[in-house]
Structures are given as structure tokens and as C-alpha cells.
Amino acid sequence: MLRSTTGMGPSMEMAAEGLSASSNGASGIVPSQSARIEVIGVGGGGSNAVNRMIASDLQGVGYRVLNTDAQALLQSASKQRVQLGQKLTRGLGAGGNPAIGQKAAEESRSDLAQTLQGTDLVFIAAGMGGGTGTGAAPVVAEVAKECGALTVGIVTKPFAFEGRRRMRQAEEGIARLSEHVDTLIVIPNDRLREAIAGAPLQDAFRAADDVLRMGVKGISDIITKPGLVNVDFADVRSVMTDAGTALLGLGVGSGRSRATEAAQAAISSPLLEAARIDGAKGCVINISGGKDMTLEDMTTASEVIYDVVDPEANIIVGAVVDERLEGEIHVTVIATGFEGGGSYRPERSIASYASTNASSDTDQSGAAIPSFLLNRQRES
User: Fold this and answer.
1) How many angstroms separate the CA atoms of 102 and 180, rounded?
2) Helical segments of 226-268, H only
3) Does the pTM exceed 0.70?
4) Residue 43 to residue 370: CA distance in whole angstroms
5) Is the pLDDT confidence value at 288 over 50?
6) Does the structure show a pLDDT above 60 at 147?
7) Which of 201, 259, 275, 366 could form a disulfide with 301 if both were Cys (CB 3.0 to 4.6 A apart)?
8) 295 — phi, psi (to 5°)?
9) Using CA atoms, how far apart are residues 182 and 246, in angstroms rounded to an integer?
10) In order of start, what are the domains of the chain with their CATH numbers?
């Protein structure tokens, strides 16, 4: 078995082990266990995101949904469901009040701790601004960290049309969440408007779910899937522990310049503010392609990203071969370690975006970058 981190780029190591099955017994080496990865959808938005992940057949992770609304739990595709605050809310929800969501999670704190024992990596997915997701997610994160798990929050902020109160609650909830996670990825839904303006409302919310899915997939795949360049859980932990606010970029390319196209799209994703990836001191990069993906593809894509991050950045690159991606290169970038540290700073303005036509498809394999990002790249 060959396992390595890439030897390309700053502050990166090349490590390889050639351990045959016969040598394990002779040397007394204990076979490694797979990292236990859990995706926890908190509240209605988080549960919807988990449903999308399950439908896309995202492999190598466990799913769990938490909610104060008993009816919503019954509709979840996840088999692992936890009703928060049974005594407090009686299964009727939090009524859009984050304080109720927080108290409900506190009521169920011991159950959460028991559930999360032994988990290595916890993703907390939530749509911020409502009652349960906003109030309960910080409590879930706190419990996960107490259990020793690397804890990653990946949440959305409301669309502007959802109202000022919901936006204010989201900002306050995200600030609290940032105090209890190792890494926090915030997806402002209004940034998606550049690619989904004019699309049906249902597609707009589905696009937000897709981005949460791709954020989880980008990190989990390089840990759980064997590839050209395998990445240990310890590698990912080294970049994401106590990393604070992170940025997520997604890109896809095809044709002769597919690697450059995919990497440039990822670092200029509509989910990123202009040039904000510059100077990142930590970076997890997932490069995926079909059997025709070459070493040159991987090198080219990586170098595009190296050029914009800190010269001494700790960079972890995973390369995964997926037969369904023949002729394409997909790049996911999670950038961390920015000046100003880990505290979440809310955006003060929302830009207006031009309209483009887009749908929000996910192929059944779950391999595809969300189509609204593909359309944006093809039009640029």
C-alpha cells in the first residue's frame, strides 16, 4: 500500500510506506482503522443538506439529523435521528427562536455526547437564521470538541429576501458557532445569486444544499477514497485544527486546459470574495478526475493555487480517480489561516449580481460540481 502526501509545493512532505500483508504479522504492526466521519444536520436547513448528501450517494461518512420538529425528523432520509428538547418543545419546533433551539440542545446534551463518542471528524451542517439550526449548532459543536473530534461547521447565511431579523439571528449564531468549531465555512446564499438569478425558488435553496454537500465531499473524499495521492486524517487535522474561518472554492474544467480552468474557477468561485484566498496559510485541495487524469493535470492545478496562497502555507493535496469524471478535472479548495485569526466577521454589504440561467442538478453519482457553478464557468 502506498500512502503519501504530495511533494509539490511549500511546507509539504513526501512520505511513502511499502507494507506488504506478510510483513504486518512479522513486524507486529497493527492495521490502521478508518477515520470515523459523521455529518450532522441541525435544524431544517441542515436536514435538507443531509438529504441531498444521501441522495447523491456520498460515501465513507455517517449521517445524523437533529431537530426540535418531530414531523421534520420523520421526513428525513437519515436513519439516525435525534429529537432535541423533547420536554421543552414537545416535538413542535423552536418557532424560529434561537434561544429555544439552544435550550433544547442543552436538554439533550448528554445524549449528544454519547452519540459522538469515538468520532474523529464531525461536520455540522445548518442553515443559519432560524431557531433550531442557529441555536443548537453551537452546542453540538461544543459537545463534539469535548469528545475530541475535529469539528468543522459548514453553514449557510439566509438570502436577503428572508428578512433582516433572520439575517441578524444568523450573524449572531455564526459568531457563537465560530467559538466552538475548529474550522468554519460560511456560505452566504446571496453570493449564489450571481449564478442562480432567474432560477425557480426551489432551485435556489437546492443550490445552497449542493454547496454544503460539495464542502463535505471535498474534505471527506480525500480521507476515505483511495487515490493517486492518499491523504491521512492526520494530514487534514494538521491544517484544520483551530483554523478559524475558512473559504470554500469549487471548480471544474474540461478540454486541453482543464486543470488550469478548474483551479482558476475554484479560486475565483462566486462563493469567495475577490482575492480573499490570497495569503492563506493552510489549504486542503481535492483534485478529482477520470482515469485519463495525468500527473501534469495535478501539478498544473496545484501550482495555480500555490501562486495565490502564502509561500509557507501548509498544503494538503489529495488526488482521487473517479471513472465518472472522464475528460474532466474537478477541484475543491478549503483555504484557512487568514490574517485576523479565527473569529467570524460578518459581511456588511450584499453585492448585486447579473442574471444567468442555471439549474441545480446533481447527478446520481454525486460526482458533479453543482451545475450552477458549471454554467457560470462556461459563460465566463
Assistant:
1) 14
2) 233-240, 258-267
3) yes
4) 23
5) yes
6) yes
7) 259
8) -60, -35
9) 10
10) 37-181 (3.40.50.1440)
